[in-house]
Amino acid sequence: MEEMEFQRFVGPLKESLEAYRNEQKGKRGASELKKKDKEKKEDSEDPDKNREEENEEGERMEEEEEEEEEEEEEQQQNEEEQQQQQQNEEEQEEVES
User: Fold this and answer.
1) How far is CA 18 from each of CA 3, 44, 82, 92, rounded to the nearest angstrom?
2) What segments bear the compositional bias annotation Basic and acidic residues (predicted)?
3) Phi, psi of 46 (to 5 degrees)
4) Are the C-beta atoms of residues 26 and 55 closer than 8 Å to each other?
């Protein structure tokens, strides 16, 4: 019975997680477009200065993406650990029965 109750939450949780990830990617993409538009305007004013800023910004974006990927991996690992723990508890209950 408990296994059935747990399993009915797994699907919606995974769907919510995927929707959240897609939303974050969309926000990141929109943000990048705005930054690129801004950079194009600045490039016409001072190309040398903007190249340095682009390099720094590119490095920051790479770091942010790596952090997000690490967070997603950690969250997925936590979900897997929770599922394993639930299965272990259910097995233990069956043994005790």
Assistant:
1) 23, 40, 18, 32
2) 15-52
3) -150, 90
4) no
